[in-house]
Amino acid sequence: QQQVKQSPQSLIVQKGGISIINCAYENTAFDYFPWYQQFPGKGPALLIAIRPDVSEKKEGRFTISFNKSAKQFSLHIMDSQPGDSATYFCAASRRGNQFYFGTGTSLTVIP
Amino acid sequence: EAQVTQNPRYLITVTGKKLTVTCSQNMNHEYMSWYRQDPGLGLRQIYYSMNVEVTDKGDVPEGYKVSRKEKRNFPLILESPSPNQTSLYFCASSPGQRIQYFGAGTRLSVL
Question: Could you tell me the CATH number of the domain that includes residue A88?
Fold first, then answer.
């Protein structure tokens, strides 16, 4: 079964808008939650990551919000740009370098 | 240039014909992993390695083998490929702290 559930599957946002992608997990042993960005024909690239001891992490226009009690985390992309159009994956990891990925969200930012 | 190199990038083969996908990293990373990416399923970890001669099963190891005889190389072996192994494969390496760097991918078709 899917260890990390991601939604929505696809998202269309106007330039300058806020893109929000949500993920949920069940296993409380997970202690590292990264987001990856993937452009067509390329491998995923780490965008931003959070550990469960903080509720929010911000890097530029990208913010992770983390709700430990609800076992949910989300990616917010502020002031979305056409260059942000890509597929985004959330993931969860526990000790030992074992990773579980969400099913991906295809983001399209319309100029 | 720091990179993870996979070869070949594209491969078409027939059922049952043994194949190897190579992965090499030049960053002296201890951790390496193999993933497969399928539409609607996201990335799923096949095998991972925490050091030379140390490998462990990921989420979907059936039908795959790996070896880690040298730190820089982590080949993925399909002893008897089947059509359900048609997929996009990614190798990743990590210096620790769970930060992963992905290769460009290998698209495999098994006929």
Answer: 2.60.40.10
